[in-house]
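Now for a specimen:

…
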Amino acid sequence: MDQLTLAAYDKAAASFAQDWHDQPAPEDLYALVQQHFVAGSVADIGCGSGREVGWLASQGFAATGYDASQGLLDQAKLRYPQQAFHLAALPALDGIADASFDNVLCETVIMHLPRAQIVPAVRRLWSLVKPGGVLYLSWRVTKEADQRDKHERLYAAFDASLVKDALNNASYLLDEEVASMSSGKTIHRLIATKQ
């Protein structure tokens, strides 16, 4: 994980969490999850303030949240005390076993990684998915060169082919670039199933 990005999230975790909860609900994401996820467990990698973990649980999924920011995890635990949240950072995700989840959700996280960590991170996310399971992966699209916002968060610039090349034996259910209903930012979304 990019250390300046992580420091930004830790420093202003309460503010980021409030902003995310004040945004419109990501109904487009929720519709895709309902359409493509299989019954069972879900790992939300980069769960932030826990909004999606709370929603997943309300839909009957056994959801667990993971994040690299202790500050954001603290916010998630305050908002959803009945849910499980753990510290884990991409690309390694130490402490999570391979093939341990029916579904993996990673919503707008990998663009915060240095480019050299993106392929190892995507391979690791894919390794968490059980055979027959589903990976939802999205990232904010940055054109031309890496950028940092006013908080110093990294937005890495990379082509979707970098990600797809890391997903061995994936069958794609969705591959699109759209404006997020929640943030309004351009994101690329992939949904893949593992044979």
Remarks:
- The first strand starts at residue 41 and ends at 45.
- Helices lie at 3-11, 13-22, 27-36, 51-58, 70-79, 115-127, 160-166.
- Strands lie at 41-45, 62-67, 84-87, 101-106, 129-140, 147-148, 154-155, 170-179, 186-194.
- The mean pLDDT is 96.
